[in-house]
Design goal:
The chain contains eight helices and seven strands. By secondary structure, the protein is α/β, with parallel strands linked by helices. Helix 4 links the parallel strand 4 and strand 5. The mean pLDDT is 97. GO terms for molecular function: 3-hydroxybutyrate dehydrogenase activity.
Length: 260
């Protein structure tokens, strides 16, 4: 879809050894960007994933382990990358419980990984972008950054916070060749979601198609999952010259969820 206009740029993508993060990394690499993959593990297969990405797209790809729950580690990830023209804050976790029953440690972990990590990586990346004279901050928020659901207090609070952080970053860089935007996906067909489908079928006594339409995609009017490739292409678009005046805002990829 996109030519290799990002050659010479380096993209750091947090939480990118699977799912949305990996999909974004693949599309950025296809557009010519060197990429830094990240997660909290440090397995041979993590590094092999980077090697596979590099071979497939003719770019440099590295895997750097960093715990996104720790601010110092978030900043060290960007510093270890050595260069960060494109920062994609994607790392996130989830927990579902009513507010009185929500474990405090789960709240703290979700806020740290889903929100605070983006503050720390952005703080480390902006000086590099300013030195380079160009930059893109892309935060993977959620439809839950614009609306809410019960039993997801920490996740919704964090994603609303990501949207707010995106606006502030966009305003602070508005007079520079740097933009900051948030992509707000609805339900995305990732390996994690795919793995949940059989259990959900059993729980509700439904077939696959029925459980997807009536349970998983209940709030998604299109009744279709977004794909990791579509989110990756949205990220690539935000890196293009066509998006140079798009900053401090959100782009929904949610099949109409937030139009309701």
């Amino acid at each position: 879809m996109f030519q290799r206009f990002l050659a010479g740029k380096t993209a750091v993508i947090t939480g990118s050894n699977s799912g949305i993060g990996l999909g974004v990394a693949e599309r950025l690499a296809a557009a010519g960007a060197d990429v830094v993959l990240n997660s909290f593990t440090d397995r041979d297969e993590d590094h092999a994933l980077a090697e596979k990405l590099a071979a497939a797209h003719g770019v440099t790809a590295r895997y750097i382990m960093a715990d996104m729950s720790k601010g110092d580690a978030c900043r060290a990830l960007v510093e270890q990358a050595g260069r960060c023209d494109i920062l994609v804050n994607n790392a996130g976790i989830q927990h579902v419980a009513a507010i009185p029953d929500f474990p405090a440690e789960k709240w703290d972990a979700i806020i740290a990984i889903n929100l605070s990590s983006a503050f720390h990586t952005t703080a480390a990346a902006l000086p590099m972008m300013r030195d380079a004279g160009w930059g893109r901050v892309i935060n993977i928020a959620s439809a839950h950054g614009l609306t809410a659901s019960p039993y997801k207090s920490a996740y919704v609070a964090a994603k609303h916070g990501i949207v707010g952080l995106t606006k502030v970053t966009g305003l602070e860089t508005a007079r520079e060749p740097i933009t900051a935007n948030a992509i707000c996906p609805g339900y995305v067909l990732t390996p994690l979601v795919e793995a949940q489908i059989p259990d959900t079928m059993a729980k509700y006594g439904m077939g696959r198609d029925e459980v997807i339409e009536k349970v998983l995609l209940e709030r998604q009017p299109s009744k279709e999952f977004a794909t990791t490739g579509q989110l990756g292409d949205t990220a690539v678009f935000l890196c293009s010259d066509a998006a140079a005046q798009i900053t401090g805002t959100t782009i929904s990829v949610d099949g109409g969820w937030t139009a309701l």
